[in-house]
Protein: Gamma-butyrobetaine hydroxylase-like N-terminal domain-containing protein
Organism: Paramecium sonneborni
Amino acid sequence: NVFSQTNSQKRGNLQNVNKIIAVSSCKGGVGKSTIALNLTFSLQKLGFKVGIFDADVYGPSLPTLIGKEKQQLYAPEDKPKEILPIEFNGVKTMSYGYAGGNQKAIIRGPMVSSIVIQLVQQTQWQDLDYLIVDMPPGTGDIQISLCQELNFNGAVIVTTPQRLSFIDVVKGIEMFDVLKVPTLSVVENMAEYVCSNCNHIHRPFGPGYMNMLQKQFGIATALSIPLYGDISKYSDLGSPVVLTLPEDHTINNIYRQLANS
Ligand code: ADP
């Protein structure tokens, strides 16, 4: 059972968080943060208590994706080490982006892991069914430290259909394997688009490698999300697409499948 890990292994304010899921990619710009956020709200729609932690210190995008760029970190006066999460639509969120300041661009590698781990452990998540962690892109020291400290129950890997991305996904699956984190699903993003003139489905990056991935690594769920203008439009407006589009929209259906997996 992939969820057999006990909560006693979780530290700080994560003790009452039932499952911690990493959303990961090897490269930036593939849609990882967008998918992490929309997966969070899809889980909420299924009735779960959910939080999202943006673990990217160098390029935190969560505050922009939910229109909270001006939000500041807040801790109660009597408990300065207990950071309060920022709520958005009933979901608890935390990001280094709320810390503001320009110093974040010059933090050295080894400091980053400890800052990120401190931030997630000091946030008052309280009882959650799921905490979604939007990982920094890559498979380096920071990602490995996060895996070791947070004891993820599973990982979702986000990619695009090019061959180079496939090679990266394999790296990602292998990293999680070594760290004993099961890869629950792989999401191929921006896989195809439907021409608004002729309705033809184009796959600009080719057929992709999802079947091969599933066969080779036994990943239970492999999903494709189309390149779709509204995803980027609503993300820029700070309005998560699964909260904005109608329930029966294709994009919402795909996210529901991901949340159910
Ligand atoms: P990452 O976290 O991997 O760096 P982001 O989630 O920030 O990537 O997405 C990068 C950009 O691509 C954003 O502008 C986002 O709105 C856009 N985007 C992501 N997925 C899609 C999609 N399926 N269709 C259209 N635009 C997308």
The beta strands are 17-24, 50-54, 86-88, 91-95, 128-134, 154-159, 183-189, 193-194, 201-202, 221-225.
